[in-house]
Amino acid sequence: MNDFVQSKKFKLILLFVVGLLIVLLLALSINSFNSHDSHYDNLADQLDYESSKQDDGDEIYMIPKEDVFSFSFIDANGIMLNFEQRDDKWIYVDNESIELNEDRVDKILNYLCDIRCTDTITVADPEGFGLNQDSKEYRVTDYSGNTVIISLGNYDQDKGQQYFAINYDFSTIFINSGKISKVSEYAIQDLVKL
Fold it and tell me: What is the pLDDT of residues 73-126, one digit of tens each?
């Protein structure tokens, strides 16, 4: 037995088993890593999940979701999407034949109905922050006809901050944790009921 343990054959078998264990451990760790990353089937599912998280900062605009009559935003394809509430059902105004995923619309309203900021800046030149009359915008209108316009400026990747203004008042720039910018990551195809 001692001669077998000392032999080249034993050492090769031992080396093979150790190598096989290392490969197996690597395969398991990669599989574990991939399953963690693919927890969501797609980006829209991840956005839905993130919509329920409390945003950082002070509340500057809050409207109960049930008070929203209509809203609009520019989607991931660069298309302005317009929605309206009719008979307790959300309608895509630009193509009323499209049946919407009401749960997904509710998730989008999580983003649009509770707007918060972590800081504000008073400036004379809002264009330095990407804000002007042509900025990407979201609109939320309540049943009384009051509309809030959220103009999105630059997104600071390093700080994870979104600059935005309310109702074209570009003299005060609000800073958001970045949550508000996620609305535009949805695309119209994410909203279609399957």
Answer: 999 999 999 999 999 999 999 999 999 999 999 999 999 999 999 999 998 899
Measured between alpha carbons, how far apart are the two ends of the chain, in Å? 67
Contacts 24+ apart (CB under 8 A), 99-102: 99/192, 99/193, 100/191, 100/192, 100/193, 101/190, 101/191, 101/192, 101/193, 101/194, 102/193
What's the confidence (pLDDT) of residue 186?
Answer: 96
Going from N- to C-terminal start, the domains of the chain cover 2-37, 43-191
